[in-house]
Amino acid sequence: MLHREGTFTITMTLIFLGVINVGMYMIDPGFGIANWIALVLSLGFLYIILQFFRNPKRNTPVNPAHVIAPADGKVVVIEEVEEPEYFKGKRLQVSIFMSPFNVHVNRYPVSGAVKYVKYHPGLYLVAWHPKSSTDNERTTVVVQNESGHEVLFRQIAGALARRIVYYAREGDKATQGSEFGFIKFGSRVDIFLPVGTKVDVQLNQVVRGGESVIASF
């Protein structure tokens, strides 16, 4: 299944590739080797674009004691840091890097009330740059679960990801595993948890958004 965020990009890609292939056929009506090369390259490029916007069904194990991965990708950071935007204090950060080949749907890691949403315009540093979480284009969302724990998660744009889409609004009721946004063409998601939260993943572990348990209260 394809995500609705891909409708415009996929449509424009089909038109672009169609024009190229029709133009190649008009130049060489006999459908020679150049036409075959153009067709094969076009199909390969279309396949890559479709991969970017796939939206597989995920079965979320809803559990108020668990924090579920908000995105597909690799765990690249597990450390205690200062979170300056909302908590203004120490928090445990877990970061997931999304490659261009991962599913790009972002899902709520916990259920509860959406307490804070803010979009920040910014730069497009590579996702692993130390300052990408504070200087890049990003969106911050905070959800408070039924036990009173507040979890902050942040969509961060990268060198390729030039559009962050978020659906969360302050006052919304978040459901663990449901969609809260989409990042086009990769990047990363940071999660900030209360210090002392038990982390259930390791560095370089590959996780699945909406399914993998990354931490427990």
Radius of gyration: 20 Å
User: Helical region count?
Assistant: 3
Helix content: 10-25%
- CATH-assigned homologous superfamily of the largest domain: Glucose Permease (Domain IIA)
Give the low-pLDDT segments: none
Instruction: Give the N-terminus to C-terminus distance in angstroms.
Output: 33 Å
Question: How many beta-strand runs?
Answer: 14
Overall tally of domains: 2
User: What is the overall silhouette?
Assistant: elongated
Structural class, by secondary structure, is alpha+beta
Describe the structure.
The chain has 3 helices and 14 strands. With 217 residues, it is an alpha+beta fold. The protein folds into 2 domains: 4-52; 66-216, Glucose Permease (Domain IIA) (Distorted Sandwich), CATH 2.70.70.10. Helix 1 packs antiparallel against helix 2. It is elongated, with a radius of gyration of 20 Å. It starts with 6 loop residues before the first helix and ends with a strand.
